[in-house]
């Protein structure tokens, strides 16, 4: 990851370009992008719904 796109609109550019999923590897900006932590809340992730995480 580059850390360049850390918000929904920025990461969404990858979706618009054809990516199926985008993983933000830096702290995401905005309440609309959830953070998942293995062992804490990974059960909240639903791959059918979340395209930007």
UniProtKB/TrEMBL annotation:
Alphabetized SUPFAM superfamilies for the sequence: NAD(P)-binding Rossmann-fold domains
Keyword terms: Oxidoreductase
InterPro entries in the cross-refs: GlycerAld/Erythrose_P_DH, NAD(P)-bd_dom_sf
Keyword field contains Oxidoreductase: yes
Keyword NAD: no
GO molecular function terms attached to this record: oxidoreductase activity, acting on the aldehyde or oxo group of donors, NAD or NADP as acceptor
Family, similarity comment: Belongs to the glyceraldehyde-3-phosphate dehydrogenase family.
Identification of the protein by name: Glyceraldehyde 3-phosphate dehydrogenase NAD(P) binding domain-containing protein
Source species of the chain: Nymphaea colorata
Organism lineage: Eukaryota, Viridiplantae, Streptophyta, Embryophyta, Tracheophyta
